[in-house]
Amino acid sequence: MTSATDRTTRCLLVVVAHPDDETFGTGSVLLQAAAEGARTVVVCATRGEAGEVLTGVEVPAGGVAALREAELHAAAQALGVQQVEVLDFVDSGMAGDPGEGSLCAADPERVVAAVRGVLDRIRPDVVVTLAADDGHRDHVVVRDAVLAAVDAAESGASPVRVLLHCLPRSLMHAWVRHQAGNDKAAAYVELPDIGTPDEALTTVVDTSVHYPARTAAIALHASQASPFDGLPDELHRAFLGADHLVRERPVWDGGNQEHTLWG
């Protein structure tokens, strides 16, 4: 795999598990990269079939998968994404035995191969995926596949930066306190180590200028409840006004915290 060093336009690839991860998770990253003139690509492993649809949202003939894929494309367009691809895995859901064909039930080597194929075609300069610090098992599978696919790159290839998009533990603790008594949040509230320790963050990018656009893109995933719904304004802006990441490739060797996606 060769990085796009011979191109004048840098390329950011975001790899996620479900429609809405690209917006709820990495929306400001995509907006920031697009504003800086980079080519942005989103690859989504599933169509979010296991997602619960909010009351009052009409499900089309194609089912939840078709609904959520349409929302993915609409939100991606609002985020300035130039290319969207969906892989053929099935949403595993939050709990229970993962069904046949689901992302969690898939042979890990097959998932890695799918991501590696994307890397070889897109040739990104930077790859961002979720850190899976929310405990969602599909996020874990995608994170591990991205790291393995990058590590399997041909010897001598130009290095690709890999950043994990994190939920800072300090913000997650504030979120948990706010969500106390919310049954829908119980699966997250019960995780004692939810979020990434703030001191582990290697990269923090101020994306506050994109706050209105990020909020508008979130609303395009109308079938899904945003984890930021109902938050006090200060906490809402703390989550959506900056992006918190850990650089995994090249491995962080210490030093001053970064404030750009590109290093």
What would you say this structure looks like, in words?
By secondary structure, this protein is of the alpha/beta class. Helix content is 35%, strand content 14%. The chain has nine helices and seven strands, in the order E-H-H-E-H-E-H-E-H-E-H-H-E-H-H-E. It has a seven-stranded mixed β-sheet, sandwiched between helices. Helix 3 (63-78) packs antiparallel against helix 8 (211-219) and helix 4 (108-122) packs across helix 5 (137-151). The longest helix has 16 residues, at 63-78. It is globular. The two termini are 20 Å apart. The model is unreliable at 1-6 (pLDDT under 50).
Report the total helices: 9
Order of helices and strands: EHHEHEHEHEHHEHHE
Percent strand equals 5-15%
Poorly predicted regions:
1-6
Across the major sheet, the strand order is 3-2-1-4-5-7-6
Largest sheet: 7 strands, mixed
Mean pLDDT: 92
State the shape: globular
Give the strand tally.
Answer: 7
Structural class: alpha/beta
